[in-house]
Design a protein that fits this description.
There is one protein chain. The chain is of the alpha/beta class and 334 residues long. It folds into three domains: 7-50, 434 Repressor (Amino-terminal Domain), CATH 1.10.260; 68-164 and 298-324, Response regulator (Rossmann fold, 3-Layer(aba) Sandwich); 166-295, 3-Layer(aba) Sandwich (Rossmann fold), CATH 3.40.50.2300. The protein contains 13 helices and twelve strands. The strands form two sheets. It has a six-stranded parallel β-sheet, covered by helices on one side. Helix 1 (7-14) packs across helix 3, helix 2 (18-24) crosses helix 3 (33-46) and helix 8 (166-179) runs parallel beside helix 9. It starts with 6 loop residues before the first helix and ends with a strand.
């Protein structure tokens, strides 16, 4: 019962050679389709899985691939980060890659994460930079590996990035409020140095100005989390009561703000205050929130990240350093 199943066990079960088992698990290897299917079925029955590290070591250096892709991510208290990791890891697995999570909680943890990565033969790295400062880019460059960032762009163009067109996100929120005849508006910001938050505010403000509406009241939450949104609403209730609508830099901020307004201040949403979030995390559609939001095109972003990594692995020179994808407005009940 406790004996580890080996390739030899699978070979004996099917009646083939060990090399045939190895070829069945190797992409592009020569093995008859019916034989491959029979071997894979037997492997599933016996709960056999090849040792990817051992296979890498036995492969000539010129063709070595571990199929490991590291994902550097931080701030799992923001549901968007968890949602993004789920989508990235699923897409990687579907493309035959093995995701490896490194939870970088603070900017100073980046060096430690890079040191840990040096102990693995990873093929590439995806760094989710939205909750990390811009200085983290210099640390990422130490990786000397195929690398793509999400959530924040390297303005120098040294590292290819994929992100939402945040200016458009802000404009979409503003245009919807304007269409509702609202003029007293506010913006709840995330990180003070957060590129996404700054750009969403800029697009929001510019679109309002174009319609002759005063600049929105800027409310600083400091983070993108639910707790930050709740705390901001608790200390800014007087200001919120004077607004007709508020655009939040993330869904988590919007949901925290909504819960505080409803439970702590008896401020009705959307009757007294209309709210728009940004991200479209799964929780935004929950019955208790039904949050109107500007959706990030997560599936397209993930596909673009994998495309860029594949081009780097193939030595393709068609690598765009700045990849911005269009968001969309989702109208629910807030």
């Amino acid at each position: 019962m406790n004996k580890k199943v080996t390739a030899a066990d699978v070979a004996a079960h099917v009646g083939v050679s060990r090399s045939a088992v190895s070829r069945a698990f190797t992409a592009g290897a020569s093995v008859h389709p019916k034989k491959r299917a029979k071997i894979l079925a037997a492997a599933k029955e016996l709960s056999y899985q090849p040792n990817f590290f051992a296979r890498t070591l036995s492969t000539p250096v010129s063709r070595q691939r571990s199929n490991l892709v590291a994902i550097l991510i931080s701030d799992f208290s923001n549901p968007y980060q968890s949602y993004l990791f789920e989508q990235l890891s699923t897409a990687l697995q579907q493309s035959g890659k093995q995701p490896m999570l490194l939870n970088v909680k603070q900017a100073e943890d980046m060096d430690a994460a890079i040191l840990r990565l040096s102990g693995y033969q990873v093929d590439g790295v995806i760094a989710v930079m939205g909750s990390l400062p811009a200085t983290s880019f210099n640390q990422c460059l130490k990786l000397s590996l195929p690398l793509v960032t999400l959530g924040r762009a390297d303005e120098r163009g040294l590292i290819p990035s994929v992100q939402t067109d945040n200016l458009t996100a802000g404009r979409l929120a503003a245009q919807h409020f304007v269409s509702q005849g609202l003029t007293e508006l506010g913006f709840v910001a995330g990180r003070a140095d957060g590129q996404a938050s700054l750009e969403r505010y800029q697009g929001f403000k510019e679109a309002l100005t174009e319609h002759g509406i005063p600049a929105p009241l800027l409310l600083e939450a400091g983070r993108y989390t639910y707790a930050a949104g709740y705390a901001l609403a608790a200390r800014e209730l007087t200001s919120l009561r004077q607004l007709a609508g508020v655009f939040c830099a993330s869904d988590a901020l919007a949901m925290g703000l909504m819960d505080c307004c409803r439970g702590h201040a008896d401020l009705a949403i959307p009757k007294q205050l209309k709210v728009i979030g940004c991200d479209d995390v799964p929780q935004a559609a929950w019955q208790g929130y039904q949050l109107s939001t500007v959706a990030q095109p997560v599936e397209q972003m993930v596909a673009q990240v994998l495309l860029l990594l594949q081009r780097m692995w193939d030595g393709d020179q068609r690598i765009c350093s700045m990849n911005r994808l269009a968001p969309s407005l989702i109208i629910r009940q807030t």
